Every structure is written in structure tokens, then in C-alpha cells.
Predict the 3D structure of the following.
Amino acid sequence: MMNGLTPFLALSFLVVALAFAFAAYLYVWVKKKPTKNKTIIDVSELIKKGANTFMTREYKILAMFALGLAAVIFLLLPAPIWSAKAQISKNIYMAVSYLIGTALSAVAGKIGILVATLSNGRCAEAAQKGIKPAFLLGFRGGAVMGLLVVGCALLGVSAILWIVGDASILLGFSFGASSLALFAKAGGGIFTKTADVSADITGKVELGIPEDDPRNPAVIADNVGDNVGDVAGMGADLFDSNVAAMVSALVIAQSLGSGFLNTAMVFCYAFLGLLASIIGIATARIGKNGTPTKALNSSTYVTTAIFLALSAGATALLGFSWRIWGASATGLLVGVVIGLATDYFTDDTKPIVKKVAHASSSGPAFTILSGTAYGFISALPAMIGIAASALIAYKLCEPMGGSFPIFGISMAAVGMLSTVATIISNDAYGPIVDNARGLAEMGGLGEETIEIADELDSAGNTVKAVTKGFSIGAAGLTVISLLGAFMTEVNDAIRAAGGAIEDLITSFDIMDPTVFFGILIGAAIPAVFSAMLILGVDKNAQRMVAEIHRQFKSIKGLREGTAKPDYDKCIDIATTGSLRELLPAGLVAILSTVAVGFIGGPKAIGGFLLGNIVSGLLLSLFMSNSGGLWDNSKKYVESGHEGGKGSEAHKSAVIGDTVGDPFKDTAGPSINTQITVVSLVASLLSALFVSFNLFG
Amino acid sequence: MMNGLTPFLALSFLVVALAFAFAAYLYVWVKKKPTKNKTIIDVSELIKKGANTFMTREYKILAMFALGLAAVIFLLLPAPIWSAKAQISKNIYMAVSYLIGTALSAVAGKIGILVATLSNGRCAEAAQKGIKPAFLLGFRGGAVMGLLVVGCALLGVSAILWIVGDASILLGFSFGASSLALFAKAGGGIFTKTADVSADITGKVELGIPEDDPRNPAVIADNVGDNVGDVAGMGADLFDSNVAAMVSALVIAQSLGSGFLNTAMVFCYAFLGLLASIIGIATARIGKNGTPTKALNSSTYVTTAIFLALSAGATALLGFSWRIWGASATGLLVGVVIGLATDYFTDDTKPIVKKVAHASSSGPAFTILSGTAYGFISALPAMIGIAASALIAYKLCEPMGGSFPIFGISMAAVGMLSTVATIISNDAYGPIVDNARGLAEMGGLGEETIEIADELDSAGNTVKAVTKGFSIGAAGLTVISLLGAFMTEVNDAIRAAGGAIEDLITSFDIMDPTVFFGILIGAAIPAVFSAMLILGVDKNAQRMVAEIHRQFKSIKGLREGTAKPDYDKCIDIATTGSLRELLPAGLVAILSTVAVGFIGGPKAIGGFLLGNIVSGLLLSLFMSNSGGLWDNSKKYVESGHEGGKGSEAHKSAVIGDTVGDPFKDTAGPSINTQITVVSLVASLLSALFVSFNLFG
């Protein structure tokens, strides 16, 4: 343990404690709000039960997977226990740190479900009193999760580094967070979209009954899905991104070998970001002439401004490098810019959503074509933003020499994610108010309340796009710095194997055919991975649509509303199906990394990671944005444009939304995690790839 | 001029003469076949007129563009005429060779239209006598084009090298072919899909009248589109690929500097490939128990086998390197494997098409989702194939040292395209029989004849997928070797600018942030490019659908078949719209290359080219294959499965096909050309990027 670091770790623990205390306060605040409506309480209970059933079954499978992998890690990492250089204690640390990563990721998901299912009904009832109290309920419910997720990440990283003192053990922790996030995102994503798509297709299109109509057998499953996919999955995802960004910065900081200051800086920026978020969350509310969208966005901007000020102060006070501060600030600002660009393509007050809505009046094929096309175009600003922030961060830190430029890139990612607690709060707000809208409808709270809930929901959709910009951008930057971490690990392995200096890898040259080989295959993997998830939803939704048709045929009085549908059957289909589809896609990503490593060696893996990042960023931006675009185009039509509800344009827009659902909530955001997992697998197995390969 | 090369150039001219003579024979053979049906003759004439109108207007615009660009080339390339080292004669050569490239590309397109519009009616009438004579007519019509396109390419390359003696001047020729192909493909692609999509949407979906029904105002435009898009555009595309592969091999061969033998080898393989194609074409026919698909595929296999035998013989006889022969053979065989993989995903006797057809019965969203997912997965085998063939070619030639490994990769591309004359014949067969089917319907030749035409058409669709595998694969390999050519050009420029040895570029390291910057932006360009083309079709088709609606409202008796629609108005909309949309997408690709070059310098451009190849290959494979998959799923449903025509599954499948149309016939295949154009622009401007840039 470096002694100079101790105060920074102590401060980290202090800010974590503060965040947990504030979260507890908000939790109690939410819990104290009244619930009266019998139906809402009942349905809310059904949703909670469904979500917990799924989570329990999912975590059982993932626990077995994690234990198996922990055993493999214990045997192999950081060095095989049978090798001469192995230190058994390190292998134990690595395996345990992996398990802690998975456990904290699971906790993050579980907390999300707990708070979200607590808030949704209360938010619906608060909407009867107006938009302001309802907003505050949804937002503070989400904030509990945001604070706890980021607190857990900082706590885990600080504690492990405090105990072990070696940042490379943190790769195990990060891998634990990622591997669980991969499956939680995939499983939850398949669940939520199975239910959502089936409910929409049968309800809105075939039967012509409203969204969230209690006669629809899939309606509870749909609301459960919002929780297990958007809340738990998203929480695990951002926990993972946050950990990966910090860990890659810490690994590089330690390799810089110039004292504790750089390591301290990572922790300092992380706890200042959390502190800024606490302030941003505490001050968020709808102002005099405000809207929910403005309130959410202003919480992001307030957090951003406070973080920039605090981190500049700390840099001045503690003598950190201004160049690295500049890199962090660049990351954060580019994150905001990417968010704004995304907003342009998905906000229904901007022209693109209107164009797609207009195209819908010519038929569904035009909805799909125009949405696909704008989705592709929307990737451009974010790609430029990520490319530019990496270039600027690198060039800023280049005069510092050594590995500092790569450290600069990793600090850009840390900067981009510094405000992540606020971002998660905004993001978790979405499914809470989405649920609240459903509950308001089912509880018969009246047209006015539903309209308020609708407005809250629409704000959630728009802001989601902005926050996704952050998480995709940060994943891009993190993975670039992980590429640097991978090269460091490879060279350590080459040295350990007795290789000479000229054997060390100093570059991954795209003209090297082994690198190129890796690039092409790496680029294909996100496409295959997302395709498998989409097919999972597709297959599963077909099963559920068949079940819904069966119920409407066999249950008499269902259509008239005199009989109740069998909600549990639909929840069961979604659960079983998504658990069946969840492992294969993730395994394809992990095993293809292993295969390429053993065929082409470390150079091929360098290429593989690059190809994976490039096509992964492109596809996840495309899918997230086109999905958001279709969703909001549908909402735009439903609000009375292009013929409004029931028109041909509406039918087309619903089809677009259905296609977009698994794009934006299953495949798109899972690609993020897939990229991180693949990078970590590569770093962890680098020694094996150096020793055994066919062509490298 | 190297004297040892003369016999090889002479043999090239001889084989070209042979190919032209054979083409002339086939042309006369086709022309002698009878045409009797009055309607068919009339409609055939309308199609020809429409196609010629479009081509004339398109070529007028492109001629101005080409002349402008030729002036720029004269001023700047290979060195600015005001610079000390400029040789004015070289600048003239470069500009003239550019213009010859554009002119031959235009000729290739024009010839295609001529023969296709000659064959379509005759093929329809021949179908009355049975499938065998009709097949032969369609195939031989296509073969005229295949022979002439490849003959022109070999003639142009041989003649310019014979006169100038400097392979780098051929970059101008290749750029001429590419730049024209880019716009011809984009313009023709937008035209054909505007008409096709509008005809399908209004005819099949809204009015419930059959495909090619003469009451549909868009029906002639649709048939014109087959010619200007699939025939002329495809011809220009493959002319370009073929030229680019040869030229990049020749540039590298000359830089190898070990006598004329390597240059001779390129020509030798090129004319042997043409010879093999002549034999393959001459022997193609439907056997005793054969089908059109088998006949087309066997022509490919016969050509492949003959080329492998001939080139092995030549290698043994003339003392060429067996390693390089191995690289060529690998390229060719991988091309066949890619084709077979593509076939698996798009042939309606294989499971994938059936799965998508089945998904369609749950609604159009499932058609889109499953088609998208399988389209993504289908990219994997081709990506692996291209990666593996590049790696194998490189490793085979690595022991030869120097630039031989890169030469090996370029010869893999030459090998993959050696059979291109047969491939074009198979490809051009498609739109001819597609037209014939339309004419059989309009000419009232009876159900039996239409069924024969349908069978011919379906074979065309399947084989198209296989041939696309070749052209995408070859583009991938060619561009890798162009990346090598680019590095050579950059280093020449650095030396010319007085740079020291340590300034020379020896690698494009993905860890270099300038390279990485280029990679990310390069990866976004094919997405933006294809999006612009799709939006072009989308906008244009909306205009045409509105016009069709207008005609059905305002022309009395149209629905009943007693009045004639205004075909010309639809042709005019398609023409005007596609000419308006054709330039911007191409300019985005070219200008973004220039912008990245001036911002990041040659290293950024190296990354840009890589990002462009990687995402370009992924997206073009995805789009071509998912488009083919949707088209054949629709045909599969129409042949009586999943409820057959008029069922819900059919409606969904038609929507899938409509989405797939611009994917597979506008955007997908245009990306190929876009990649080549960008690579050539980069090579040509390398000296400027070395001299002027912001960060490099």
C-alpha cells in the first residue's frame, strides 16, 4: 500500500458513506409517500413478484456460471497455479475479486428493482396531484439507484486496492462486473422486449385496445420487463462501465511508476464526481415554467459544472497535472455533445422524428427505411466525438511522455463517467414513470393523470438517448485504454516467458495480416452477438404472441373485460425464454476471443479488439438511436400528427417501434458490455495467448 | 517499356480480340431469334427508350463531372504542375487515362443496356418453347456483356501500360472507372428501387394486382430500372473491381523491382481467366435433369476449374512463383466458399429463408427483425473468408521477402476476380429474365410461360447472391492491397519532400491516436453513404407513390384496364429524382477523405481506409444478404407456403422485400465502389496530405 494514497482512499470511503446516507434518506422519503388505490397496490405487488421471480431464477444460473468461472480464474490467473512463477495468494485474490465484482453487480440490479417497484405506484398516485410531485417521486426513486450503484463501484475498487495494493487484481473485479452485466443485460433485455413487443403487436395492432390495458395478458409481463431490463440491466451495465473506466485508468496509473499521485487523481476525480452528483440530484426539480425534460437535463448540467469546478480546484490545490485535467474535461464535454447530437435524432420536437413519422404515412417499409437511414447517420457525430476526444486527450498528454498519453485517454473516460450517478438517476427515472403510466391506466386514475404520466414518460425517453450517448462514448474511450492495458499485459507475459526486448509488442500495425485477420473477425462479432439477441426476442415473442392469442380464444369474457387473463403464464414464457437465450450470445463473444487468440496470438487479439470496438460502437449507436427514433415517432403520431391514432401512419409507426424495441433495449446497449467483456478476457488471457498460438 | 513483357501484352490483346469476337457471335445469335408478339415488341421498345433516356441524361451530368475532375487531375497529379519536379507529360497521361477509365466504364454500361433490352423480349417468347431455349437466350445475352466488360478492362489496362510503361498512371484509369461506377451504381440503384418499391407498394399491397400488371403506371419504370440499375450499374461496378484489382497488383509488381516477371504474371492470369470464362460460357446449358440454377453454378465451377488448371500450367511453364499461384488460387477458392455461404442464407431451399417466411406470419416487425438478424450473422463467414485468404496469401508469400506478401494479397484478389466474365454473365442474366417475366405477363403469353419465366427469375436471384460474394470479397482484398499501394505512394511523397528515412511510414499502428481517429471516422462513412442512398430511394419512391395514386384517381377506367396509365410520368420521376440524389452521397465519401487527410495527415488516412473497409464490408454483406433473404422469403411465401399469396405472411413478406430492395440493389453493392473510390482518392492525394495537414 502506498501511504500517500491513504487519505484519498479515506475520502473515497467518506463520500461513499455520504452517498449511501443520502440514498437511504431518499428511500425513506419515497417510502413514506402514500399509496391508497387498491388496484395499483395489487398490480404493483404483481410486478414486484414477477420481477423477483425472474431475478432469482436468473441469478441462480449466473451464480453457477460465476462460480465455475471463478474456479477457472483461480487455476489460471494471473499465472497458472502449476507454473513456477505462480503466487497462490494472487490467484485467490483474483478469483475473490472476480466474485465480489459479480456480487456487487447483482446487488446493483437488485437494489434497482427494489426501489423501482416501490416508486412506480406512488408515482402514479402522486400524478393525481400534478406533475411536480410525480416527477420528484420518479426522479428520487431513480436517484436511490444511481447513488448506490456508483457508491458500490467506488467502494469495491477502493477496498480492493486498499487491501491488495495491486491494480491488476482489479481486472478480475472489473471482469466480474462485466461478465454479470453482459448476461443481466442480455437476459433482462430479452425479457423486457419479448413482453413489450408481444403486448404491442397483439394489443395495439390486432385488438385495438390501449397500451397497458389490463385485458392484455402480457401487460404485467411488460411492466416487469421495464424493471428487469431497463432498471436492473441498465444498473449492471453502468456499474460495469464505471468500474471498467476506473480500473483501466488505475492499471495504467500504476504502470506509470511515478509515485502515488496519478492513482490518487483517479480516486479524487471519482469521489468528486459522486459528490457533484449528490448536489445535482438534491437540487433537481421542475422549476416555475419548467418541464420534466428540462429538469432532468439541468440535473446533468449542474452536475457537470460542479464536477468541472471541483476537479479544477483539486488539481490546483494538490498539484495534479492540468493536462490530465484537460483530458478529463474534454471527455466530459464530448459526452455532453454526443448526448445533444443523439437528442437531435430522437427528440420529437426536432425534425428527424417528424420526417420518420411523415414517411410512415406511405407504409411501414418507409418507416423502417427512413429510420434505418437516420440511425446510420446519427452514428457519425458520436464517432467523430469519440475519435476527437481520444485524439485531444492523447495530444494534451503527449508532452508528458511514456504511457501518459494513454493515461490521458483513460482519464477522458473517467471524466465522461464522472457524473454517472446523475445519469443513472435520469435513466432509472424512465422505467419508473413508464410503470407509473401503466398503473395509472390500470388503476383507473382518469384521463388527466394518465396525460401527466405520459408527459413524464416522454421526457424519460428523450433523456434516455442523452444518457446512452454518455455510456457508449465512455465505453469507446475505456476500451481504447484497455487496449493499452492489454499491450502492457502482453509485454509482461513476453518478458516473463523469457522473451528479448525485440520480441516485445510496440504496435498493432493494420498492415500486419495477423492484426488485419483479427480486425475483420472482431468486427463481425458485435453483429453476430446482437443478431443472436434479436433472434432471442423474436423467437420468444412469437411464443408469447401465440399464448396471448390462445388466451383470447379460450378465456371467455376476456375481450369484454369480465374475465381476467392469465398474467403468470406470460411472465413464465418471458422468463424461461430469456434464460434460455441469455448464455449463447455471451459465450459466442467470449469464445471467439479465445479462438482468435489461440489462432493468431496477441497481435491478432489486438486487431480483434479494435475491430470489435469499431463495429460495436457503430452498431450500438445505430441501434440505440434508430430504436429511440422509432419509439418517439410513434408517440409523435399518437399525439395527433399524420392522422393520429388508428391511422395508417400509426400502424406503420407501431411496426417501426416494434422493430426498434429490441434494437434499443436489447441489442444496442448490450453491445457496450460485450465490448468491455471481450477486452477484459483478452487482457486476462494475454499470457496464454503469448505461450500458445498457431500463427502469431 | 520492358521488352520481356511484350509477348504477354500481345497475348492479352489476342484474348481480348477472341472475347470480342465471341461476344459478337453471341450478339448475332441472340438478335436472330424471332420476336412476334406485338405487345412485347412495343413494351420492349418502351423499356429501351426509357433506359436510353435515363442513361443519356445521367451520362451528360457525369461527363461534366468527369471533365471537371480531369482538369483537377491534370493540375495536381501525379505532382502539381507548378511544382519543380512536375513532368507535364505525366499530368497529361494521368488526366487522359482517367478519362479513358470513365469512358470505358460508360461503354460497359451502355453495352449492357443494348444487349439486355435486345434479349428480354426474345427470352420471353422463347419461354413459350420451354425452359432450355429461354435459359440460353437469357444467359447468352448476359454473356455478351460479361465478355465485353472484362475485355474492355484488360484492353484498357494493357494499352495504357504498353504506351506509358508506368503502372502508377493506371491509378488514374482505375479512379476513372471507380468514380463513374460510384455514381452509375448510386444513380441506377436509386432509379431501379424507386420504381420497384413504388410498383410493389401500390400494386401488390394496396391494389392487389399482380406484379408486372400493365395497369400499374410504374411497371415500365420498374423494368427500365432493372436495366439501368442491375445491368448498367452492375457492369460499371464489376468493371471497376476488375480494373482496381489488376491495377493494384500491377503497381505493387512494378515496385518489387525484380524484372518484368511479376508484371507479366498479372497479365497472364488476367487473360487466362478471360479464356477460362469464354470456355465456361460456351459450354453452359441446362442438362438432362438440370435446372437454371445448376446450369449457372456449373458455368462458374467449370470456369474456376479451367482457370486453376491453365494458371498452374502457365506457372510451371514460365517459372512463375508457385507461392503466388497459391495466393491466387486461395483467393478464387475463398470466393467460391463465400458464395456458398451467401447461398445458404438466401436460397429458398435452405432453412434461413423458410424461417424468415415463418416469422412473417407473426407480422411485418418479425420479418424485419429476423431478416436483420440473419443478415448480420451472414456477414461472419465472408468476413472470416476474406480475413483468412489475406492471411494465407500473406503467409504464403512471406518467405519471398520485401513487398511480396502484399503482392500475394493483391494476387488473391486477381484470382478471386479471374472468373469475372462468367460472373457478370450470370449476374446480367438476372435482370434479363426478370424483364422477360414482366414481358410474358404483359404480352399475355399464358400461365405456363410465366411459370417458366418465374423459374428462370428465381435462379437469377439465387445466383446473384453467389456472385455478390465474389465482388465483395474481391473488393476487400483489393483494398488491402491498395492500402499497401497508399503507403508506397506516401513514402515516395515523403522522400520527394526531402524527408529523412526515419520520417518514412512503416506502419499504421492502431494505438496511434491519429490512426485511431481516422479509423473511427472511416468506419462511419459507409453507414452515412448508404443511409443517403436509402433516403434517396425513400424520398423518390414517396413522390412516385403519390403519382401512382393520382393516376388511379384521375384516369378513368385505369383500374378496369380500359384506359392506359401514363408510364412516362413515372419514368420521369425516377430519372429526375435519382439524378438529384446521385451526387451528394458520392461527394460525402470523397470530401470526408479529403477532410480527414488534411486534418490528420497520411497516418489518419491509413486508419480512415481501414475503418472504411471494415465497416464497409460488414454493412455491404449485411445489406446484400438480408435484401436477398427478404426477396426470396417473399417468393417462398408466394409459392404457397405460410398461407401463400394474399395471406398475412405474404403482406409482411412484401414489406420485408420492400425494405430489402434498396438494401440489396442500391446501398449494399454501392458500398463496394465507395470503398474503392476512397482508397484511390487517398492514394492519388497522398503527396498533398504529406505536405499539408493539421495534426499529422
User: Anything to note?
Assistant: Chain A touches chain B through 81 residues (CB under 8 Å).
